[in-house]
Amino acid sequence: MTTISNSIASTAQSAQGGSSASSGSDIGSQINRITQQIKNLTQKLKDVANSSGEAEDKLKQQEMIQAQIKMLQAQLAQLQRQQAEEAQQKQAQNTVKAEGVNPPSAQHQVDIYI
Fold it and tell me: Are the CB atoms for 11 and 68 separated by under 8 Å?
């Protein structure tokens, strides 16, 4: 049990440290890393279920792993939201502005009287 508990604790520490990394790191690589950690923890969850040992110890280990997976899923959702917002901002920046002979400005206004 201590081996699995230690590996779970180290996974949690690396996940927390990675998600709070500086904005200079690539969000896509963080998403890939967290996705891989979720896969690893899911495999550990299966291994614990199939391992020998007391049912109470196995249940505690499974609960710990499930808590880690939920935490990573929340971080993943946050990163995906952030990635979508950045993509939306890039798209807004790339939209074509109105151009022509007299582009819209404070100097080029038309007053219409009825």
Answer: yes
